[in-house]
Design a protein that fits this description.
Alpha-Beta Plaits; 2 domains
């Protein structure tokens, strides 16, 4: 006996290799993450499905933990939704988790913050296995200086000097509670966590840190670059290939986010208005 159709709002965690997409956002006639997900979910639902992402990633940027929301009707039970979605997707895009949420759940509006990592490969030789997911920087870098400089970006700051001149956000004031550099698995990893990010912001920060490592800037220059509010004063924009969206934070998953208890920014602290305290079950 076939399963009955049921309507639910879903939270889908997705991963993708950004090299084969024009970015997350749907673009007419182009292959996008949003477009591929909408196509796959529409096939499951038998009707057009609207997909809402937690944020946009540019062409070439990867994700391990992007989140989308979508409301649709299907016969697929919760425990089989991941398998059903992936049966409709290619090998460069996957749904890694699926949860039925309260009806009004919105991946963008309800997100509290995001975690990104930018990866640098600093060996003298090009690594063919990491070349599409990291920036190969051959020149020796002063990692201690870079670590010191990264700390200057923590707090509620105006990142006007570190966003694309084509960014359409109303302002560049953002709250970062982590900006750290570490060595991991033969790479240099820049990890940043914040409530929101401007267009190219993390790539501008990463590029500036590499310029610190190369000796173009000193760690003590970072406050001056922030105060300048001038993109031309800061460092290069790092290539998209090194950037990965690792995680999107929601009010029910903040235990490991590391947000300071005294932090204040849109969506935090969590309130009944920003997240239903006792959400009704999906219909």
């Amino acid at each position: 006996m076939p399963l009955e159709r049921h309507t639910a709002t879903w939270r889908l965690v997705v991963a993708y290799h950004g090299a084969r997409f024009v970015g997350f956002a749907a673009q007419e006639g182009e292959r996008s993450v949003q477009g591929e997900l909408a196509r796959a979910l529409s096939a499951l639902a038998g009707e057009p499905v609207r997909v809402r992402g937690a944020g946009r990633t540019d062409a070439g940027v990867h994700a391990r933990g992007q989140v989308v929301s979508a409301r649709f009707s299907s016969r697929v039970p919760v425990e089989k939704m991941v398998l059903a979605c992936n049966s409709q997707l290619g090998d460069d895009l996957a749904v890694v988790r699926a949860e039925a949420m309260f009806d009004a759940f919105d991946a963008k509006r309800h997100s509290v913050g995001k975690r990104y990592c930018y990866r640098l490969h600093t060996a003298a030789w090009h690594d063919p296995f990491r070349g599409s997911t990291s920036w190969h920087v051959r020149k020796h870098l002063d990692l201690e200086a870079m670590k010191e400089a990264a700390g200057a970006f923590v707090g509620e700051l105006d990142f006007e000097s570190f966003r694309s001149q084509h960014c359409d956000a109303a302002h560049a004031r953002r709250y970062l509670w982590m900006s750290e550099l570490r060595e991991q698995d033969g790479q240099v990893v820049y990890e940043v966590r914040g409530n929101a990010f401007c267009r190219h912001m993390i790539r501008c920060l990463a590029g500036t840190l590499v310029d610190v490592g190369r000796g173009r800037f000193r760690p003590a220059d970072m406050p001056r670059l922030l105060a300048a509010r001038d993109r031309t004063q800061a460092g290069v924009t790092a290539p998209a290939c090194g950037l990965t969206l690792e995680e999107v934070y929601y009010p029910d998953e903040l235990a490991h986010a590391g947000i300071p208890a005294d932090a204040r920014f849109p969506g935090f602290p969590v309130t009944p208005e920003s997240w239903p305290a006792d959400p009704p079950p999906a219909s």
